[in-house]
Give the backbone structure.
Amino acid sequence: IWLFRERLSSTGTDRKIWKHIWKQLEDPGKHGKKKPPVGPELPGVTKEKTAEAPDKGKTAGTGGKKKMTKEERKAAKIRASEKKRLRREERRSAKTRRSKDGTWTKKNSASHFGNKLHTVQGTDIPLIREFVVTTASLHDSQVDLSIPGIPCYRDKGYAGAQCRGINATMDKAARNHPLAVGKIRRNLRITRKRSPGERPYSVIKCVMHGGHTFVTMVRRYRVKAMFLCLGYNALTMITLKKQGKIA
């Protein structure tokens, strides 16, 4: 099985399989037309605790600390980029079983290491249409799975990000600028639309036990994520068939 998955990931056949399966599903009654992307979770990460190191390159305007000059900020930025490059080279050359493509990220005061799954599904028939696997530190707004001409319901984490579809991102309040009543109600309407999009991550993590993976590259996790998404679609179609929503 491992060699089979390795061939799929190295040759890119997994993408062809995903497209071929969706061609079989594309008939009336099997799927809807709306494809709003939802916020990604972390089903493919390894939870680990770590202490955050203080960032020496940050400037402080209050607290009695002196502000950096333009030259000092430029030098600090160069040092930070060089340090990041050295860490990247060290990670690639390290003789370890830890993923060389994986990165650290923080969510709800917990640190995670690994990869991240982004999915898109419809509002009428909740099947996963497309998915993308990225490293964990990549911000959600950097991935756009929306489709031109179709509303794209997204949470506040995507505020200000570009959207190929019709932008239906939730409004985000700022300091001393609370949201008006109309925008709060708009956020509630968007939340009702996009709330079913969180179900795939719950099923993948709790039912399929896909929250912890043991592969060490993004392309390998992409194959595992494809089978997880196919499994979720199969379970969802069984449920929809029992409800009489599909033939």
User: Anything to note?
Assistant: DSSP finds six helices and six strands in the chain. The CA atoms of residues 33 and 122 lie 7 Å apart. Residues 2-48+101-243 form one domain. Helices lie at 2-11, 13-25, 70-93, 181-194, 199-207, 218-243.
